[in-house]
Amino acid sequence: MIAVDTNILIYAHRAEFPEHVAARKLLAGLAEGSELWALPVFCLGEFLRVVTHPAILKPPSDLPAAKRSLEALLDSPSVRVLSPGDRFSPLLLQTVADARATRTLVFDAQIVAVCRENGVETIRSNDRDLLRFQGVKARSLG
After folding, report:
1. Across the chain, what does the average pLDDT equal?
2. Are the C-beta atoms of residues 114 and 88 closer than 8 Å to each other?
3. Dihedral, CA atoms, 29, 136, 133, 112, nearest 10 degrees?
4. Cβ distance 120 to 109 under 8 Å?
5. What gap in Å lies between CA 105 and CA 86, rounded to an integer?
6. Which of 46, 51, 104, 141 is the most exposed place for a label (fewest CB within 10 A)?
7. Greatest CA separation found in the chain?
């Protein structure tokens, strides 16, 4: 199973990014396919935060449009939302320690830990910071 990171969701949602077409193609393939794929729960909130934030995107997306984008993905019969379970806390602490993650990297460590807990081997992301974490392979759009 592969997971999709927030930046891919943002690229697919916003046409001004050069990665827009590739991200939309990736998500359409996953959403319409029969193979299981995943969205870490943390990425859902981060997506909404980023695309509706006027200091990040000009103009920001309105909340109804952002919600519709997520709802369309969540309607896919092959998607799974990854939520923390019983092994999450020790996995998070180990992931943070192994990568010496601090500050904003702790958020990435949460994504990696929830992926590891749920058996995800690959996460699609253009965030190079994910390369510093062990246990999940980061694969970019390019």
Report:
1. 96
2. yes
3. 70
4. no
5. 22
6. 104
7. 40
Structure tokens at 73: 């993905």
User: For the purposes of burial, counting CB atoms within 10 Å of the CB of 78, is it exposed (0-12), middle (13-18) or buried (19 or more)?
Assistant: middle
Domains of the chain are 2-139 (3.40.50.1010)
> In the chain, where does DSSP find H-type helix?
6-13, 20-32, 41-51, 63-74, 88-99, 105-117
Q: Are 137 and 3 in contact (CB under 8 A)?
A: no
| Cα–Cα distance for residue pair 61/3, rounded to 1 Å | 24
**Amino acid letter for position 138:** A
* pLDDT for res 77: 97
48's tokens: 């909404």
Output the pTM of the full model.
0.95
Euclidean distance between CA atoms 104 and 63, whole angstroms: 24
For residue 142, what pLDDT is reported?
74
Tell me the mean pLDDT in the region 21-49.
Answer: 97
